[in-house]
Amino acid sequence: MSEIGTSIPNVTVRGPEVPRNIQALDPVFNVSGLSVFYGDYAAVRGVDMVIGNREITAMIGPSGCGKSTVLRCFNRMNDLIPGARAAGKITYHGEDLYGDHVDPIEVRRRIGMVFQKPNPFPKSIYDNIAYGPRVNGRKKGMDGIVEEALTKAALWDEVKDKLKQNALSLSGGQQQRLCIARAIAVRPEVILMDEPCSALDPIATTKIEDLMQELSRDYTIVIVTHNMQQAARVSDRTAFFTAEVDDSGVRHGRLVEYDETSRIFTNPSDKRTEDYITGRFG
Amino acid sequence: MASTSKATVPGGPSLGRSRPRYGELIIKVILVLAAAVSVATTIGIVAALLEPTIEFFGTVSVVEFFTSIEWGPLFSPPSFGVLPIVVATLLVTIIAMIVAIPLGLAAAIYLSEYAKPRVRKIIKPVLEVLAGIPTVVFGFFALTFVTPLLRDFLPFTLDYRNALSGGLVVGVMIIPTVASLAEDAMSAVPNSLREGAYALASSRMIVSLRVVLPAALSGIIAAIILAFSRAIGETMIVVIATGGRSIFTMNPAREMDTMASFIARAGSGDVPVGSIEYKTIFAVGALLFIMTFLMNYVSAKVVRRYREAYE
Predict the structure, then answer these.
(1) Which GO cellular component term is one of those annotated (chain A) (predicted)?
(2) Cα distance from A46 to chain B (closest Cα, Å)?
(3) B196 is in which domain, residue-wise?
(4) Which of the residues B191, B194, B200, B205 would you substitute to probe the A interface, choosing the one with the greatest number of A C-beta atoms within 10 Å?
(5) Which helix (H) or strand (E) holds A46?
(6) How many domains does chain A have?
(7) What ipTM did this prediction achieve?
């Protein structure tokens, strides 16, 4: 958060404390030729990317480039928007995510999501965490699940004495960590984050970023962010999207470049990527 | 720009209003009057009820009024035990609520959470038209259609006029009120809560029942209270379909007299002004008013305790 300006940000790609071989991707998602339509309008076109297991993948780009739209395909949240439909193919561990036999509810049990604006339920802190396990049929050991999820989300110490309080009494940053804890409580494999820090102050943002690093030991994380420094700080790979205008004048989103984060921020292969990360874009 | 602008010359005309805005004043007076009419009407009704009611209790003892089970203020000799018509009123109201709450809420959940926007746009106005059907029509529907139907299908005998038929049709009459207002409350629940719930692997029914319904509870209770108030005070349907003979019974198959139907019948007869029969009408009216008021008060407390406020 300290660097502000138009120069290439100080890149602090994740240190070697979590060793991994980025080249040998263990794919969780495999996206090929993905286009997303709202009615007849193709909002995003021709996206190909592979999301690696227990990596943090960042999706960056200007507003309207379709990065959130793509993110919402990974847990089929777009199904809830009337008229939205995905073409192309996304596989999850080799299984077609949009196959006829696939139950979107089961998809969302494996693939959790955290939203831009913290959206805790207007219930107690405890009930917020217990909600997911309960609706998924868990009845016993709820206290343990709640404590574990809150601990993993680095919130336990702050709320352990007020679990019965309304979640809306927490600060914005705490609410967002609560939402992360709520997602964790369902024991997903993947956590999708749609600009999780854009409504938070810098201190709360730092906490969430630290948390993401911590969580990536156990979870695959895909994050959409407007904040390039954030992508540079936390992610292993970065996908740069942009908005283009096609021959008939229709604006749509495109994936421009997808690579290791260190390369995207130091040696991008596409001029548009370079322009964007150096602040020369639009 | 600033150098040529005359408005910013220091020491120019004062910042006071250059000319009075009469229009604003007139509008304000009209708005205050409009608001005052309903308040004044309520006060007026209470005042009008109060005096004859007090006079009534000068003649009839409070104990007799609330404990006797003989109701016949228009008979000779008259009897003033209000319990039979209170029981009848509650019986009809409870039957109506048993019909209206589940059906109304189910309709609201369908419209708010399940129906496609296009379907909702068609169904909601249709539902609201149902709320506009005159109650006298409902009354004859109860008497000439529902009662014969019930007589065909139920294993026990029904009076020609009975509480069951009246209660069921009052319930149908208030379904649109419950459905429409509850749907408004549920639609007002922010989508972010729904998305959060869906992202935690909830089915549509779980989202509706565990997230949307509790968040909309205060609006839903308001809808139910309004429906309850309409049911407890409903007159025309019960006059036509439930009858006027006052019997102290809990059996909904019997003919009975409710508070509202008593007021309607006695008030449209030739009861002399100032007589005890006349004052009885006001006493019953006051009691009905108090019952509705208490219901409102209690449910407001309940809502404050259980609702999940999202703002």
Answers:
(1) membrane
(2) 25
(3) 71-306
(4) B200
(5) strand A41-52
(6) 1
(7) 0.87
